[in-house]
Structure formats: C-alpha cells, structure tokens
Write a structure and sequence with these properties.
The chain has 344 residues and is mostly helical. It has a domain of 108 residues: Serine Threonine Protein Phosphatase 5, Tetratricopeptide repeat (Alpha Horseshoe). Helix 11 runs antiparallel to helix 12.
C-alpha cells in the first residue's frame, strides 16, 4: 500500500493509515487486524487512546470493523466511539469521528441489532459538511455513503455514484485497501445490472489486492463474491476455498458460512475434523483455555495454510437452488444467504 501520510494533516489514525513496516506499533495493529484479532489490536492502542485522538479513532475503527465481520461487540464499539468523540479537535478529526458513527449506525441497522438508519444518514451528512472536498478522508466517507444508499436507502444509482467517487479518490491516494472495497461494490452493481464480465473483473481485482496486502479476513468474502459470477466447476472451487478460510478464522466473517455451503448441506455436515494442533486464527473466536493474552503471540500464531498471505504481508503494507417442489430447509437457507447484502 502506498504511503499517503505526507498528504494528511494532523494526527494519524493507526487503524487506517498505510502501514509503515518500520513502525512496530502500526505493523502489529495491521497484522492483528488483518487476521480478525480486533480485540488484541485495539488493546495495543488502548494506552495511548486515553489521551490521543488519533489512537482513539484508530481503536474505534478496529472495533467497528469487528462488528461488521462478527455482528458482535456493539456496546464496546459505541463506548470507544464516544471516547474518541470527546478527544477529537478540528474539522478533520470531527469529520472522521462522524464518519465512524455513521458506519457503526449503518452496521447496526443492516444486521438488525437496532434501527439507526436516520443516525447513519445524519452522521455521514455531518462528516460531509466537516471534511473538505480535498480531504484524504473523503474517499472513505464517499464509500460509506454508498453503502447506506445501496443497502439502507435502496438507491442503486446513488450508491454507484458514491462508489465511483470513492474509487477515484482511493486511486489518487494509493489507498489499496479501500480500492479492494470499491472494486468489490462497483462489481456488485455491475452484477445487479447483468454485466457479468465487468462484475468478474471487479471481484477479481478486489481478491487480488486483498491477497497482495495479506488482508486475510477479506479474502473469503472476495472469493465468495467472485464465485457468484463464475461458471461451474470454478464457482464451487472458489466457495470451497472460501469456506476453508472462514473456518480457519474461527467462523469469521460470521455471516458468510451459510452462503458457501453446497445446496442442501448444513454446516455440521460439511465441517472437517481439525488437523492436530490446528486452531482458529481469529482472536475473537473461542480460544483454547491456555490461549496467550499477549497480542504479539496471537499475531504470530498463524497456521501454515496462510503462508501464501504471509509473504505478501511481509513485503507490502487484502449454486443456485432449483425451484423444484421439494426444496429442503437447508437448501432454501443457503439460497437466501447468498441473496443477502454483502456487509463488507
């Protein structure tokens, strides 16, 4: 990921800044975050988050992302957000805090935790008023406004325009991680319009970027999305690979496994017996009783199956159901899961 720190003014957000690999803290935060160890990553920022606004915003970003991938931790994310809002100064930081509030409210609404759609729109509108057009935080805001338009407002035209602005801004800043998200959602709109070739291109780009960055938690969703526009047998191969990654990460993202199951199968039927010594990577999945509390140990505890992503991290800075009369509940559930919004 290109280093855009020179283009930003004010304190840096450790959770969203491009990763300088010679900075031990930011490097550790990224490695933990990319494996779904959000609690451990947030713990690294906790001491400085008491008095430093950038660290407080970074901690909020991590905990909000955990909500999106696990549908848990809402209260802790809200608490972190309120603490950050109490520390921020200046329009840029206030705009970033408002952007986080809008994103958390969006996620809460999308997952049916609590309807906060009005709060999401209001907060993102406030962020738009605070962040000037040339702000380096503007592309992320545009992307999140696109999510609200797409999933909460049912406005595909507005969503596509917002995603296109975010994509252009992320390209100009060299923000590779954000590009992996904008490619993904532009591809989703192309898929909805029936343009499978453009959808395939976008989903493939999103997957490529996430693999190069080592954004492990984002790879399974990217594989799943690409599978939806690929023919068989490639689609089934991609879903099987995605399912293995989800299980490796201890069921993260929590909303993805049902989408990946073969038609008519259940999670219990397709679960593989773990290899000796194999454990979930995610720090938020149920750990063994002797699990280390040391984030550095958690970061290093990555199974060998993720080795291809390790090399990228070290050098860079992420079945259609038939309509026959006898459709089983499991088959119907899998089909319904695949038709749900892609939260990330």
């Amino acid at each position: 990921m290109a280093d855009t720190a020179m283009s930003r003014s004010g304190p840096k957000n450790p959770a969203t800044e491009p990763v300088p690999w010679d900075d031990p803290l930011q490097s550790a935060v990224w490695r933990l975050r990319s494996r779904g160890c959000w609690e451990d990553a947030a713990a690294l920022l906790a001491p400085s988050a008491v008095t430093e606004s950038a660290a407080a915003l970074g901690r909020t970003t991590l905990l909000v992302e955990r909500c999106l991938f696990t549908a848990t931790g809402w209260e802790e994310a809200d608490d972190a957000l309120r603490a950050a809002e109490a520390l921020v100064t200046g329009d840029e930081e206030r705009g970033s805090a408002a952007c986080e509030r809008g994103h958390l409210a969006y996620a809460s609404t999308l997952f049916g935790v609590r309807d906060r759609a009005d709060e999401a729109r209001s907060a993102l509108g406030r962020a738009a008023a605070l962040l000037p057009p040339g702000s380096p935080n503007r592309p992320l805001l545009d992307f999140r406004r696109g999510l609200v338009a797409q999933h909460l407002a049912g406005d595909p035209r507005g969503a596509q325009a917002a995603f296109a602005r975010a994509h252009a801004g992320a390209s100009a800043l060299g923000d590779a991680l954000l590009l992996s998200f904008t490619w993904r959602h532009l591809a989703s709109t192309a898929e909805q319009e029936g343009n499978r070739a453009e959808a395939r291109r976008g989903f493939a780009e999103s997957l490529r970027i996430r693999e190069e960055l080592g954004y492990l938690i984002g790879i399974a969703p990217a594989l799943s999305a690409l599978a939806d526009v690929e023919p068989e047998p490639e689609a089934s191969r991609l879903r099987a690979e995605a399912l293995r990654l989800v299980r490796l990460l201890g069921g993260v993202p929590s909303w993805l496994e049902d989408r990946l199951l073969p038609t008519g199968a259940t999670a219990a039927e397709t679960a593989e017996a773990p290899e000796p010594g194999e454990a979930a990577v995610s720090g938020n999945a149920a750990p063994p009783a002797e699990a280390s509390d040391d984030p550095a140990v958690a970061a290093a505890d990555v199974p060998a199956v993720a080795a291809r992503d390790e090399a990228a991290v070290a050098t860079t800075s992420p079945a259609t159901v038939t309509t026959a009369a006898a459709v089983t509940p499991a088959a119907a559930g899998a089909a319904e899961a695949r038709s749900l919004p892609r939260p990330d």
